[in-house]
Amino acid sequence: MVDPSTSMIKTLMSIGFRSQGTFSTTFKRFVGQSPKQFQSRIKGLHKFFKSYEQHEDRMHAADICPPIITCQVQHPNDFKGVIFIGLFPRPIPDQKPVMGTALQTPLRNCTFTGIPEGSYYLLAAAIPWKMNVTDLFLLEKAYRGKHDSPIVVDKYTDMIVDIKLRPPLPTDPPILVNLPQLLFDRKEI
């Protein structure tokens, strides 16, 4: 019988990690928790994600303060699920966004307000309701969208940006941040 830890170590070594500890450190940096913590929360996270289908999250006029970016999302008419949109400091979503939200279809617009000044990449990913638990974390099939260039935000920024979701392309950067976990963490605040 093959020892599961030996098999895992061989796999990690074959993809470039020098040890299980290096993998765990890298995993925690990108996902925000250890692989063991992540594994123990998968079922609860999946259950929460599925319950989000009935959730409603609206911004009130009193919450709007400059700088402002309004995103208008175009998605296939038959898409039903959650659309994650975030302002990231780099073009690869490998950490929590500076600001982010999740829209349920059929909603197509969101507004970020009070954005810190800086330069950001506006990135979006969409997860359909029908995905199984594994697909929530392996997002290579998720629809993608982005603004074509970095957005420079200053205290006067007030803009509308269109994001068109499309199937993933081989040239797309990997999504290294745990999107469902961001949604779950926001609920706990």
Report a brief summary of the structure.
The protein has helices at about 5-15, 20-30, 35-50, 180-189; strands at about 70-75, 80-90, 100-105, 110-115, 120-130, 145, 150-155, 160-165. By secondary structure, it is an alpha+beta fold. Helix 3 (about 35-50) packs across helix 4 (about 180-189).
Structural topology:
Layout: H1 4-14, H2 20-31, H3 35-51, E1 68-74, E2 81-88, E3 99-104, E4 109-113, E5 118-128, E6 143-146, E7 151-153, E8 158-164, H4 179-188
Parallel strand pairs: 1-8
Antiparallel strand pairs: 1-4, 2-3, 2-5, 5-6, 5-7
Overview features:
189 residues; alpha+beta; 8 strands; 26% helix; globular
Can you characterise this structure?
This protein has 189 residues and is of the alpha+beta class. 26% of the residues lie in helices and 27% in strands. The chain has four helices and eight strands. The strands form two sheets. Strands 2, 3, 5, 6 and 7 form a five-stranded antiparallel beta sheet that branches. It is globular and about 55 Å long.
Distance between the termini: 45 Å
- Helical content (DSSP H or I, runs of 4+): 25-40%
Structure classification: alpha+beta
Number of strands: 8
Task: Let me know the largest β-sheet.
Answer: 5 strands, antiparallel
